[in-house]
Design brief:
The protein is of the alpha+beta class. The protein has three helices and three strands. It has a three-stranded mixed β-sheet. α2 links the parallel β2 and β3.
């Protein structure tokens, strides 16, 4: 049973990643989660000159009706490519 839950969470994480990538062309996305609660790191040129709220709204728009439905909680960290480089982070 534990393996099924893990596989399901991984598949959902991958689905969320694909939806964000489809909605935000050129975005680099990493998603992890347990099947209900997810964390996403999104790096996109589209975030330039936008507030954090506006950046998050772009991600939510990409996910559509799944937010609050299939996806119960999503923690977002959004960056422009320049901000990501300054963080010296790496997307895996």
């Amino acid at each position: 049973m534990g393996l099924d839950n893990g596989a399901s969470a991984a598949m959902q994480s991958e689905q969320i990643k694909r939806l964000i990538e489809q909605g935000l062309a050129g975005a680099r996305v990493s998603v992890s989660g347990d099947g209900q609660h997810f964390e996403a790191i999104v790096v996109s040129e589209l975030f330039a000159n936008k507030t954090m709220v506006q950046q998050h709204q772009l991600v939510y728009e990409a996910l559509g009706e799944r937010m609050g439905g299939e996806i119960h909680a999503l923690s977002l960290r959004t960056y422009t490519p320049e901000q990501w480089i300054q963080q010296q982070g790496r997307m895996e």
